[in-house]
Design goal:
This is YhhN-like protein. The protein is built from ten helices and no strands. With 290 residues, the chain is mostly helical.
Length: 290
């Protein structure tokens, strides 16, 4: 069994342990699942990419690190836990948008058949937010969730407009499409049923893990089309890791990594400004209508 399959099995095991912990009120198992599932997916991506350090790879590592904080913060409970988790999820999704744009994705097309990729996410999210969510969300989360909804439209559209072919496109397109379903379950679980239905929580949590795993697979395939046939054994990884530790050139390499992370955060800042501009424009147009 190669290392990637082993890590994938560990991810499934962690999801199962989390569900078992929820049903049996075992806080330790619930905490372990929330803290380690997304980092394990990030580690899976790292092995798939042989721990390369292109700007996209570093952004993906950062995505799943931030995602771990997002899942962990919900354990605080109450409205503060929800606010912090949603905020960190927004940051995570911003990094994913940066990844898609670094792949060359732009939301435009001169083909009429591409129009549904933009209109369908916008229409579905707008209808769900307006008819289902607005009446039940707390006032403290109102503007945060409006921003989240706008950002989700942008994220899903970027995932559907990727200029790649084959399995890479399918994995990511399926993943970003299911993000909406995951968020619908989240809203019903926390805002409508107030976390009273454990089975709904487990389905939503499991779907969330599989969604981000699909995105990791799709990005990895696009970064290295031969990655499925170039798995690195655990022994090879340990040997390479020891070599890395004693290689003085990695000090220079580490500096490049820090510069890349800085560039990623610059991209996130620019994306945030663009998202706020879109958000205020949508809000202004909405006020005109009403």
């Amino acid at each position: 069994m190669n290392i990637n399959r082993l890590i994938a099995l560990l991810v499934v095991l962690l999801i199962g342990l989390t569900g078992f912990g929820l049903f049996n009120s075992i806080a330790l198992l619930v905490s372990i699942g929330h803290i380690f599932v997304l980092p394990m997916i990030g580690i899976w991506y790292g092995f798939k990419r042989h721990w390369r350090t292109t700007s996209i790879d570093i952004a993906m590592y950062l995505t799943y690190l931030v995602g771990s904080f997002s899942d962990s913060l919900i354990l605080l409970g109450g409205q503060i836990g929800e606010v912090l988790q949603i905020t960190m999820t927004i940051v995570m999704h911003m990094i994913l948008i940066v990844v898609f744009r670094k792949e060359g994705t732009r939301i435009y097309s001169d083909k009429l058949q591409d129009l549904p990729k933009l209109l369908i996410p916008i229409t579905i999210i707008f209808i769900f937010f307006g008819t289902v969510l607005i009446p039940v969300i707390p006032d403290a989360l109102y503007f945060l969730l409006i921003f989240y909804a706008v950002q989700e439209m942008i994220l899903i559209s970027h995932g559907l407009f990727r200029r790649v072919k084959g399995k890479s496109y399918v994995w990511v397109a399926l993943g970003v499409s299911l993000i909406f379903l995951k968020d619908v379950l989240y809203c019903y679980n926390f805002f409508i049923y107030e976390n009273s239905i454990l089975s709904l929580y487990i389905i939503q949590y499991s779907l969330s893990a599989f969604v981000y795993f699909m995105i990791a697979v799709g990005i990895a395939l696009n970064q290295d089309n031969n990655s499925l046939n170039q798995q690195e054994s655990f022994e090879q990884f340990i040997k390479n890791y020891v070599k890395v530790l004693f290689n003085i050139k990695n000090l220079i390499h580490f500096q490049k990594i820090l510069e890349t992370i800085k560039n990623i955060f610059d991209e996130i800042t620019k994306s945030t400004k663009r998202n706020f501009s879109i958000f205020w424009h949508v809000l202004a147009e909405t006020n005109k209508i009403f």
